[in-house]
Amino acid sequence: MDHDIYKTLPPDEAQQLGLELQEPTKSESFVNAFLKHSMPNLKKKSPQEFLERKAVILEYSLKRKKRKRNKSKILTAKERRDMRLFEIKPEQQRYQLFLPLHELWRQYIRDLCNGLRPDAQPQMIQNKLLKADLHGALLTVAKSKCPSYVGLQGIILQETKHVFKFITKDDKLKTVPKLNCVFSVEIDGFISYIYGSKFQMRSSERSAKKFKGKGSIDL
């Protein structure tokens, strides 16, 4: 394989290709210059020795640095609690301040239930309320295993998987567990009951859940 890269092209092939043959020394100089230009990493090794050991890479590209994507960091539940993102400040705990929210919720339910007409089926309204967003609803604790909760009424400000937080008319923020409690919601004369033990889920999960008509044991 010695000097294969400097081998002279046969005259008949050169004539067919329209090439002009050069002297061997000029050809060797040209090939050496071409290889050094095409392979910058070739330093001490001769072109012939390099070609005998590996394939030739005439083109190369610089390694591009991978750009780090700025992924938005999602706060954990503990971080949200530590930052007190959902804490309602004492100066904001006023019943009158959330009456507009309650009026917006009433209009939202009317639109959801197609106007709450007198001939509307109670079961249809009940099914709509089960999946509705309750923030702004006027909630009343109808029954509970804890007597101190019975009769509490207020506008729902926050709902989690296990509790309701609402503001009462005397400007007090109350946290009532859903477990072992029955809540009533009134809207335009329709009264709907919510069994908290069957309601232990987030509002986002509740909107996609299919509720089945099952009998509930009274407290």
Descriptive overview:
Belongs to the eukaryotic/archaeal RNase P protein component 1 family. The chain has 219 residues and is of the alpha+beta class. The protein has a domain at 92-208: SH3 type barrels (Roll). The protein contains 7 helices and 6 strands. It has a 6-stranded antiparallel sheet with strand order 4-3-2-1-5-6. A hairpin with a 4-residue loop joins strand 3 (163-168) and strand 4. The longest helix is centred in the first third of the chain and has 15 residues, at 24-38. The chain is rod-shaped and about 110 Å long. The mean pLDDT is 78.
Please describe the topology of this protein:
Blueprint: H1 11-17, H2 24-38, H3 47-53, H4 77-83, H5 99-112, H6 122-131, E1 138-144, E2 153-159, E3 163-168, E4 173-177, E5 181-187, E6 190-195, H7 203-206
Antiparallel strand pairs: 1-2, 1-5, 2-3, 3-4, 5-6
Briefly say what this structure is:
It is built from seven helices and six strands. The chain has helices spanning 11-17, 24-38, 47-53, 77-83, 99-112, 122-131, 203-206, and strands at residues 138-144, 153-159, 163-168, 173-177, 181-187, 190-195.
- The averaged pLDDT comes out at 78
Largest sheet strand order: 4-3-2-1-5-6
Rg computed from alpha carbons, rounded to a whole number of angstroms? 40 Å
CATH topology tier name of the domain at 92-208 = SH3 type barrels
Give the CATH superfamily of the domain at 92-208: Ribonuclease P/MRP, subunit p29
Question: Strand share of the residues?
Answer: 15-25%
**Total number of helices:** 7
InterPro entries: RNase_P/MRP_Rpp29-subunit, RNase_P/MRP_Rpp29_sf, Rof/RNase_P-like, Rpp29/RNP1
GO biological process, one term: tRNA 5'-leader removal
Keywords: Nucleus, Phosphoprotein, tRNA processing
GO molecular function: ribonuclease P RNA binding
